Sequence to fold (625 residues):
Amino acid sequence: MIGKLAKSVREYKTPSILSVVFIALEVVLEVFLPLVCSDLVNFIEGSSVPGMDTAITHNFTLLGINTGVSVTGALDAGAIGYVFAYAGMLIAMAGLSLTCGLLSGMFCARASAGFAKNLRKDLYYTIQDFSFENIDTFSTSSLVTRLTTDVTNVQNAYMMIIRIAVRSPLMFLASLIMAFMKNWFIALIFLGAALLLLGAMALIPRKAMPIFNRVFKKYDNMNLRIQENVHAARAVKAFVREDYEIQKFDTAATDVRKDFTKAETLLALSNPIVYFIMFVLILTTCTLCTVFIVNGQTDPNFHTIGGELNLGDLSALVQYAIMILMSMIMLVMVFVMIVMAVESARRIVTVLDTKSTLESPEGGKTEVADGSIEFDHVDFSYAGDDEKCALKDADIKIKSGEVIGILGGTGSSKTTLVQLIPRLYDVTEGSVKVGGVDVREYDLESLRKNVAMVLQKNVLFSGTIKENIRWGKPDATDEEIVEACKLAQADEFISQMPDGYDTYIEQGGTNVSGGQRQRLCIARALIASPKIIIFDDSTSAVDTKTDALIRQAMKESLPEATKIIIAQRVSSFEGADRIIVMDGGRISAVGTHDELMKSSPIYREAYEIQNKKSDDEEGNDAVAE
Fold:
């Protein structure tokens, strides 16, 4: 998992390394500061220093306890020079440490933000290669969560790792070494406290990790509620179901809150544990050091455990104790962030490791000879289960240039049948051939460039009309765009818009009507001049006259292209060479209008119902007149 994520660092390796280097320098400078301070305190504390003329005896009070130790200090010019020298050294080291810290933070921010950018890009590129089956497996809301929330969690963890996770162990080790140099016995106490803290922290993730595993699935569910509500906003308002949708979202959000509260409560236990151990350790250090110093200075026969101590050493040891435990606190922060990010990282890597169920064969064919199509005893199951086939034993040949209509009830697998032609799914059994070649032998991009689909759910993207039409042909000229829109009967309403072809389309095409949206999608398909054009109920929102004009225009402008029209209106098949009737996932009948009127009860019933409806409407119009 780490190796997979590390590939997204790429060009941000240098800032990542520089962040670590400057952190290391900052730590080195910081651990030497208490050492210099210790020497300075010991220098001032010294009872006899060469060149001292004036001695002042005073009492040092430590933690409110009068030690009674008589200490002399010097105020002559030489001593003051020593003090200023130490002060200058401390200021220089502190300034360098601050500079290193700032540089480390700058490089860390650049590296983590760049890593997140690359990770999102890698995820997005991987998803672009997904087949419909892959997308169905993950769900749209889950993929959105992985691209946003999960990547942010991993970004924060990476930032912690290259900065604090490097700083904390270095600070711990360096401070511990310095403490051993001062007094090995006190340093052992520090080490014991640190090990105790690590042991306590190790128990927390065992309880927290399962909760985080659950919570991200609930995140997906919450995002799904948002997606559905926004996408179906018109339906929600039309049926006055705002309260119901609010309740559904509130339930999903409450589930997320409960799990996050439980997990973060466990993780929050780390802070009081750390601070309790830190304060006990400082109290212990001060008490022992005070005893060692006082007894060592008042009783010449007293032997300090771990080495001789004086006031400067006490100052340094207290600072090292704080550094050691602060490094542990920072390590706990990293630990908390990593615990949260591990599940996000797994979810991200699951997407990155997923291979599309549809891949172009090596050296796949790039030329499609013509628009002929052959279904050779095709079975297809969305679940890959032979016993639950959505399409069963589809067997039909379509000549290049034919106009084919497909009629069938809801759930009869009309859309499933045509989705196999551009290889949006792979057959379970049998084969589908285009231009005499099995679609699995084609380069996917080449195949799909020659098979244009106007889907049942028409989708326009935010951008101008020109930009949307150029989805079908990126290098299309303005003249080609206008011509395609004329064929799709869209030029008239576009010309009436204030900005014409530069009119901005809102996301999803919400600022145009359903019929206009369908005609723009048809124009987008026609501009590519494909060998096969599939219309999946894509003229349902236009009137019968416009529908007929579109079909006539296609017949005249693209005579060699095979046209497949899925529709509920029998009138949409006017002029079709053959009509396929689907029923229950099977091809029930194939023939011309006259043939099907005799042989297919399904087609005859649909025709009679629709014509009776038309006759009734005409009769009502006559009565009204």
Observations:
- Confidence is low (pLDDT under 50) at residues 47-75, 617-625.
